[in-house]
Write a structure and sequence with these properties.
39% of the residues lie in helices and 15% in strands. The protein has two domains: 152 residues, Cobalamin-binding domain (Rossmann fold); 275 residues, Aldolase class I (TIM Barrel, Alpha-Beta Barrel), CATH 3.20.20. Strands 2-1-3-4-5-6-7 form a seven-stranded mixed sheet, sandwiched between helices. It is built from 17 helices and 15 strands. The termini are far apart. Helix 3 runs parallel beside helix 4 and helix 9 packs parallel to helix 10. By secondary structure, it is of the alpha/beta class. The longest helix is centred in the C-terminal third of the chain and has 22 residues.
Length: 485
């Protein structure tokens, strides 16, 4: 890089106090620093800076690139207006978008936001090329693979760049560029005590499957070496006091051999940590469960999705109902908290499958968190989104974002049920799940009734700001089923 350059990453506000560390931005900061760039982070999430605050900050500073990554649910509520403020105050900087939200629909994002570029896919290599281009040859932006841009009113989406296969070659996130005291104290999970600190990490990229409702930025799955992961854990533990690790992978457990190597390394290195990760039911067994429990795993996030085999097959889940049941029973047996994630609204779903899903939750619930059932959402980039386009149920990105208001509401009705019947069924089932939860924990019926009212107002009164129940953490739950057999 002939010049250093100056880059700003903006972390948009989620309007909540439980914020996940922005790993994507932190990896890109590290990549740019390796090339000699000066990089700042503007964290609107933890400080709740307003757009007016951002405008003032931008007016007082000069940048070459301004980066903004996001997922689709935040686009209309937050990102679109944020881009307007950035464009009005960016001076000579390029506004660069990236992440799961822009990647599948780059032309739409360029058109609606006025951004100068969209990074399509992984950004560590692309962002440094973009900065070099901005500093030395701005007219050559259309030559950069993995970039979408607008030239003379024409949108140009270049060929995708191949993903980085050796994840160990990627520098650790640049934690020091962010307010770590805020992020390590932000998320509180069951099992944490006063003074414990948590942070997100990534150990893999991608997934072994292609579920219809998921958008994968890259094909296949890649994994870091166990030694590389352990090195990062040690640094975070020693430098920032992190002792609870949230592995924010799409799929953390990719094989029995790999996870046993990881759990052995935790014990060999005498790491006194807690952690949670994601797993598929077909990869989970008693040997893995015991190793996880013995090494500090307190929670497994598992996408069971449905208790109906036809529905599982229709979403291309590639698992069986029997495997779902077996995985839940194993997690219960070893006292590992389990994310009972079930969705409703796919082709083949009906009121009976919804109620069976709810009964599954009640049967295997350890009451770590309030569990409810959400409708499936065909986010842009997912096979379900393209299926909706093909069937004429969606017209495109504009139509999707015009309809999308809240992740607990339907965007597309794949079942053919009357909308009033859909929401009445969801209301009854989620009310039952909420009451069941509080009856098994602290009997805080005021909170239970508040949640129930929130769902009612969302479903029937269009009060879209309701955030659902899943973030409500009840650390003092009875966990009456949490007995190791």
């Amino acid at each position: 890089m002939t010049k250093q350059g100056k880059v700003l990453f903006i972390v948009h506000d989620n309007y909540q106090d439980d914020n996940v560390f922005p790993l994507g931005a932190a990896y890109l900061v590290a990549a740019l620093r390796e090339k000699g760039a000066e990089v700042d982070a503007y964290c609107m999430d933890v400080f709740h800076y307003s757009n007016e605050d951002l405008a003032e900050y931008l007016s007082q500073n000069e940048f070459d690139l301004i980066g903004l990554g996001f997922m689709a649910p935040r686009f209309k509520r937050t990102v679109e207006g944020l881009c307007k403020v950035i464009n009005e105050n960016k001076k000579n900087a390029w506004l660069v978008l990236g992440g799961h939200g822009p990647t599948p629909i780059p032309e739409y994002m360029l058109k609606t936001t006025g951004a100068d570029a969209v990074i399509v896919g992984e950004g560590e290599l692309i962002i440094t090329d973009l900065l070099e281009c901005k500093l030395t040859a701005p007219n050559r932006i259309t030559d950069i693979t993995g970039v979408a841009s607008s030239v003379d009113g024409k949108y140009i989406v270049n060929e995708r760049r191949k993903p980085i296969m050796d994840l160990d070659s990627i520098s650790f996130p640049a934690w020091d560029a962010f307010p770590m005291d805020k992020y390590t104290a932000s998320l509180k999970y069951t099992g944490m005590k006063e003074g414990d600190k948590s942070l997100a990490m990534i150990t893999t990229r991608g997934c072994v499957n292609k579920c219809s409702f998921c958008h994968r930025m890259e094909k296949g799955i890649r994994a870091r070496s166990v030694n590389n992961i352990i090195d990062e854990i040690k640094i975070l533990n020693k430098t920032y006091g992190v002792n609870y690790f949230f592995f924010a992978d799409e799929l953390s457990i990719i094989s029995e051999k790999k996870i046993l190597e990881f759990t052995d390394a935790i014990k060999t290195n005498k790491l006194d940590i807690m952690y949670r990760m994601d797993c598929r039911v077909d990869l989970f067994n008693e040997k893995i469960a015991k190793a996880l429990k013995d090494s500090g795993c307190l929670f497994l996030n598992i996408g069971f999705e449905s208790t109906d085999q036809w529905v599982l097959d229709s979403m291309n889940k590639n698992v069986t109902v029997e495997q779902n049941i077996r995985a839940a029973e194993i997690a219960n047996k070893y006292g590992i908290g389990v994310g009972l994630n079930l969705i409703w609204g796919l082709p083949g779903d009906n009121e009976k499958t919804l109620r069976r899903n709810a009964e599954f939750i009640k049967r295997y619930n350890l009451y770590d968190y309030v569990r409810t059932i959400r409708p499936v959402t065909p986010f842009p980039g997912s096979p379900l989104y393209y299926d909706a386009l093909e069937k004429g149920l969606l017209k495109g990105p504009d139509d999707f974002f015009d309809r999308f208001r809240n992740t607990d509401l339907y965007v597309v009705n794949f079942m053919g049920m009357p909308e009033k019947d859909i929401y009445q069924a969801l209301y009854e089932v989620n009310k039952d799940l909420i009451l069941d939860h509080f009856q098994h924990t602290n009997n805080d019926m005021d909170t239970a009734n508040e949640l129930i009212e929130g769902f009612y107002n969302l479903y029937f009164k269009n009060e879209f700001a309701f955030r659902g129940a899943r973030r409500l953490n009840t650390n003092e739950g009875m966990r009456e089923k949490n007995e190791i057999v």
